[in-house]
Design goal:
The complex is a heterodimer of chains A (317) and B (368).
Chain A: H1 2-31, H2 39-59, H3 65-91, H4 96-118, E1 136-137, H5 148-152, E2 153-154, H6 156-174, H7 176-186, H8 188-193, H9 198-225, H10 236-246, H11 251-273, H12 282-300
Helix pairs in contact in A: 1-6, 1-9, 1-10, 1-11, 2-3, 2-4, 2-9, 2-10, 3-4, 3-9, 6-7, 10-11, 10-12, 11-12
Chain B: H1 7-13, H2 17-37, H3 42-54, H4 57-82, H5 90-107, H6 114-141, H7 145-168, E1 169-170, E2 173-177, H8 189-194, H9 203-220, H10 222-232, H11 234-239, H12 244-271, H13 282-293, H14 298-322, H15 327-341, H16 343-367
Antiparallel strand pairs in B: 1-2
Helix pairs in contact in B: 2-15, 3-4, 3-14, 4-9, 4-12, 4-13, 4-14, 5-6, 5-7, 5-12, 5-13, 6-7, 6-12, 9-10, 9-14, 10-12, 13-14, 14-15, 15-16
The chains are: A mainly alpha (317), B mainly alpha (368).
Transmembrane segments (chain A): 32-57, 69-92, 98-120, 158-179, 200-222, 254-272, 284-302
Subcellular location (chain A): Cell membrane
Membrane topology (chain A): Multi-pass membrane protein
């Protein structure tokens, strides 16, 4: 029993990590008032650059260090895409949802275009070998009974995601910058009157959100798939967005929701391995995370309130 | 959870022909820049693209076939957009419509005319039901329609795959449905012959007719008026006594119809069957691009559908002749959309150009 619990916990954390990055990135952007529909695109861009650069670094002989280099580089892909979203929404006052759709379109098209360009027409990047991330055990804690191995023998990205959650919480609720950021998302006119530079803050929040969400994409490529193809992200950015809403735009809530959705995805893999589940068609299992997400959203929606100025493009600046 | 009002949605309707034209030019320039970076000759690539899209009767016919699908998915997005909603549901609705039409083409008694008509109606109904579900989630549960559509797209995709494998599968190839009866097809042989056997069907005329009907519906019917009213100013519409929740459901259901029909036409007019697929039909997503570029109007949507059909169909020619990966066409589409969405950018540039021209004109006058 405890072994099965440990296994489920472990697989939940593996599948949640990317969603946690996505949800934390998303909430930075939305707390500043910019709808984060482009999360899917940031994650796609991050996964692409991570897979491609890890392969390049691997070829250059960096060995296991390639993965860490790739993780770092992936943030630039997200930041760059986020810059496009910020320019469209903040400077040119485009509809946030439309701009998000466009960035998602753009990221998907461009990353596959570049894959074909760099890898001689292939539909995916070459599979990584030592350029993938490997698990790191935290001495002492990893040997705790039941949960030790699942919690403390994890991929470095999982620890990093936990840091991101704590960091976002500290930033938003315990620094002057976080207060300003939240003010910009609630009442930009008031914030501006008090001397907050609304546009600059929004640009910063959106670009940071892109960089963090891209780490989520990189996590998928460097820990799970080992390459990048059209199916690497496949909607995880939207699930991260749903987790952020479910978590009521709060870092801890978003992380908890991401864990929940990660478990739904993880369950898919665990269930498929157990003999009694062979009779369930794979399609039903594939549907599970999406259907569950929707059910949860439909059930809770009326109780969560977004930042007041979210998505507005009409304010005076 | 209503994610704020979206005042600029209304502004998007007003994408003028000049804005659209400028966005297309900018989009093509972005594509050319990328090709230069990749070491390709953009002019040769665009020439190959144009040849593949319109260079022969067959190629032109196939472009019109793709435009048929895009006109319908574009119409779907445009309809929802007029009511202030963004519909991303067309991909899932296409798959459902295709499956419904395939079921009719396989299971119904082989009666000419009746069978295809029922097939098309079932396809449209499948899409409309899915749309009504999204509309209900939005109107009564406050779930953002974009998120609901994205989740339901995946549910539709896997549901369709499931139903193919456990119901309609061809015994010889379990990855696709059986082929529909000859009586169920909507082929237009005379039109097809005109275009050197391109796979054109009566679906093309249906799409054109529906776009015409859409213009009439929007501007000449009560429901059309109410939808536009809700889209442009929900508060005013509610104060005028319009039931905005029911209108949201109606708009999403109406929008689902053409998307489902697009899938039905693919089955009854083009392939004769539908396959298990790991991905959603791209033409569904392209409908968003089409509706935006077309300013959510009937004529604009038709022209935008033709342009994007040429871009995505012509991409193969670009790859064959010049070696440019066909995904470039999608990047160009995204770039065009970006310039449409960020209208203030194109407007600003146009004003600046205007100013330069005026200054030049003044300069010439002064010099004279």
């Amino acid at each position: 029993m405890s072994a099965a619990f440990g296994q489920l916990l472990d697989i939940t954390l593996v599948f949640s990590t990317a969603l946690v990055f996505g949800a934390v990135g998303g909430l930075l952007s939305e707390r500043a008032g910019v709808i984060a529909l482009a999360l899917e695109g940031y994650m796609t861009g991050g996964a692409f650059l991570a897979a491609a650069s890890a392969y390049a670094l691997e070829r250059l002989g960096f060995g296991p260090a390639s993965a860490y280099g790739a993780l770092f580089l992936s943030m630039f892909a997200g930041a760059l895409l986020a810059l496009v979203h910020a320019a469209a929404t903040v400077t040119y006052r485009a509809d946030h949802v439309v701009s998000g759709v466009v960035v998602n379109f753009f990221a998907a098209g461009l990353s596959l275009f570049l894959v074909k360009l760099f890898f001689a027409g292939a539909g995916q990047t070459p599979t990584l070998r030592e350029g993938m991330l490997s698990r790191v055990a935290i001495p002492g804690l990893a040997d705790l009974p039941v949960v030790g191995s699942a919690l403390f023998r994890q991929y470095p990205t999982t620890y990093l995601a936990a840091l991101a959650v704590g960091g976002a919480y500290g930033l938003l609720y315990h620094t002057p910058l976080g207060l300003r950021l939240r003010a910009v998302g609630e009442h930009p006119e008031a914030a501006e009157t008090l001397g907050v530079r609304v546009r600059r803050l929004r640009y910063g929040a959106v670009v940071a959100s892109g960089a963090i969400a891209a780490l989520g994409g990189a996590t998928v490529a460097l820990t799970t798939t080992g390459n990048f193809s059209h199916a690497t992200i496949a909607g995880q950015g939207f699930i991260a967005l749903a987790a952020m809403i479910f978590g009521r735009w709060h870092p801890f809530g978003a992380a908890a929701a991401a864990l929940f959705f990660g478990m739904a995805t993880g369950l898919k893999n665990v269930v498929q391995l157990s003999p009694w589940a062979r009779a369930i068609p794979t399609e039903v299992i594939y549907m599970l995370p999406y259907a569950l997400t929707l059910l949860v959203l439909a059930g809770l929606a009326f109780r969560s309130t977004p930042p007041a100025a979210l998505g507005r493009t009409d304010e005076a600046r | 959870m209503r994610r704020g009002t979206r005042p600029s949605v209304a502004a998007l309707f007003s994408a003028s022909a000049a804005d659209a034209g400028l966005a297309i030019v900018f989009g093509l320039i972005v594509g050319a820049g990328l090709m230069l970076l990749g070491g390709f000759d953009p002019l040769a690539a665009y020439r190959a693209l144009a040849m593949k899209a319109f260079g022969s009767p067959y190629n032109a016919g196939e472009t019109f076939r793709q435009a048929t699908t895009l006109m319908l998915t574009g119409l779907s997005v445009a309809l929802a957009y007029r009511a202030g909603l963004l519909s991303i549901a067309a991909p899932g609705q296409m798959a459902l419509g295709a499956l419904a039409a395939a079921a009719a083409g396989i299971g119904l008694p082989p009666v000419p005319v009746v069978q295809p008509v029922i097939g098309l109606l079932l396809g449209a109904a499948a899409g409309a039901l899915w749309g009504a579900l999204i509309g209900t989630l939005r109107a009564y549960r406050g779930v953002n329609e974009v998120i609901a559509a994205i989740m339901l797209n995946w549910v539709a995709l896997y549901g369709v795959n499931l139903l193919i494998r456990f119901g309609l599968a061809d015994p010889a190839n379990r990855q696709r449905t059986r082929t529909v009866a000859e009586t169920a097809r909507i082929d237009a042989p005379w039109l097809s012959d005109l275009f050197a056997h391109a796979r054109l069907s009566y679906g093309f005329f249906l799409a054109v007719a529906l776009l015409g009907g859409y213009a009439f519906f929007l501007h000449r019917t009560r429901l059309g008026f109410e939808l536009r009213a809700v889209g442009q100013n929900p508060v005013a519409a509610a104060l005028a006594g319009m039931k905005d929740r029911r209108l949201v459901v109606a708009a999403m259901a109406l929008a689902g119809g053409p998307a489902g029909l697009a899938g039905a036409i693919e089955v009854l007019g083009v392939y004769g069957y539908w396959t298990v697929s790991p991905t959603l039909p791209a033409a569904g997503f392209d409908g968003i691009a089409v509706a935006l570029l077309g300013g959510a109007g009937a004529l604009g949507t038709a022209l935008a559908a033709l342009l994007f059909a040429a871009l995505s169909g012509g991409a193969a020619g670009m790859q064959f002749e010049v070696g440019v990966p066909p995904e470039l066409a999608r990047v160009v589409m995204a770039a065009i959309l970006f310039f449409i969405a960020a209208q203030n950018l194109t407007r600003g540039l146009r004003e600046r150009l205007g100013r330069v021209e005026r200054r030049n004109a003044r300069g010439e006058e002064a010099g004279r």
